[in-house]
Amino acid sequence: MTQSQVDRLLHPDEARKIVFSHVEALEPESVPLDQAGDRFLVDDFVADVSLPPFPAATMDGYAVIHDDSSNPREVLGSGFAGDATSVTVTPGTAAKIMTGAPVPDGADAVVQVENTKMVDGQVEIHQSDVRAGSNIRQIGADLREGDLLIEAGTRLGPAEIGLLASLGQAKVLVGRRPRVVIYSTGNELVDPAEVPGAGQIRDSNRFSLEVAARRAGAQIVRVGHIADEEDDVREALTSALADADVVITSGGVSMGDKDLIKLILGELSEVHFRRLFMKPGKPMTFATTVGDTGDKKLLFGLPGNPVSCLVCFHLFVRPALQVMQSTEPDSFPTVQVSLEHDIETSDRIEYQRAVVSVGRNGMLQARTTGSQMSARLMSFIGSNAFLIVPPSNDYYPAGETLDAILVEPPGPADL
Ligand code: AMP
Ligand code: MG
Questions:
Q1: How large is the C-alpha radius of gyration of the chain?
Q2: Cα 29 to ligand 2 centroid, rounded to whole Å
Q3: 303 φ, ψ to 5°?
Q4: pLDDT of 57-115, one tens digit each?
Q5: Are 265 and 237 in contact (CB under 8 A)?
Q6: Partner residues linked to 46 by β-bridges
Q7: CA 20 to 30 Å from 357, out of 267, 297, 307, 366?
Q8: What is the pTM of this model?
Q9: Please, which residues have CB within 8 angstroms of residue 34's CB and are 6 or more apart in sequence?
Q10: CA pair distance 199, 130, nearest whole angstrom
Q11: Whose Cα sits closest to atom 15 in ligand 1?
């Protein structure tokens, strides 16, 4: 790619396409079921049996023949959950049965114990219309052999894990979690425990990126800070590339004299873009290289401003991490929202932090979180969406409909 192509001011949608064209699912791994929660299923999961595999009682009571008119009836024995059936119910008899136990041969209904009475060792049925099949879960009532139960790419939650357990999947093939190294850069940065001296600030990106990457399923290999020194940056990035599938840095990608990430990424990898037609996040670098064993490595040089850094993470890094784990890039829905107030626009596509809520009319509405300056991390606090504001010379008035990427579910509006 020529220098001018790399330096072109790219539309974020085009940039996402470029990122996705370089991202592949990592080699999947088989993990024990108790470690598969929140991982992504690699293959469609199809039932190889029907459940329940036998007709089972859904109530404690008596297994009977529904249209048997004899009363009282001889009791044939007890069936507990976990028992194999041994008796056969015939007219004039009933078998005591507990919830979950197999319904014995001959019986076609279960009468719940509350509707019966034991008299001299025999059972009286006090229910006039016992219907065939009542209180019985028939074979396949839960699921049938051949049913598609869980689609490939699904994040495995409690119900999915339970289903896999019910069907005997002691191990599950899931996407591998990408190994990620995170570095913040900048001589001005100090640790949160330190008191910043003149001109210094506390490092926030290193911490916010770590949480964001973990939430996106990454395995964090290392998190650190690099000074703005050429040799330090070269050394840190070289070792990061040796250990990680994805290297995320913050800072050092704009036009300043000390913006070394841009320079060193150009040396160590193939840079695909470094300028975006968006706000915040104009200076963002995406590069790839190939590791010793032929595996592709991704490098995201995110901008240093804390808001730009996180917006770029959400738009580019998170989706890439998802694809690497064998699922779709976008788990966040894009929804249409009505503006609660006028919105200022800029000459670039803007991703404004916003609160999307359900209005009185049941429609989604959005308000922004105040000043949208790219250093103001407070603009993220309480927000649940990115309002996508297309560039314009004008403003968008209250009531106008725009798109928003919903990163958390909408709550009710403040009434
Ligand atoms: P840079 O992209 O390195 O020019 O940084 C842009 C702005 O973001 C500067 O004001 C930096 O001080 C600030 N910044 C860079 N990295 C961090 C960080 N890790 N935490 C907080 N602020 C940062
Ligand atoms: Mg810097």
A1: 31
A2: 38
A3: -65, 160
A4: 999 999 999 999 999 999 998 778 888 767 999 999 999 999 999 999 999 999 999 99
A5: yes
A6: 148
A7: 307
A8: 0.93
A9: none
A10: 83
A11: 304
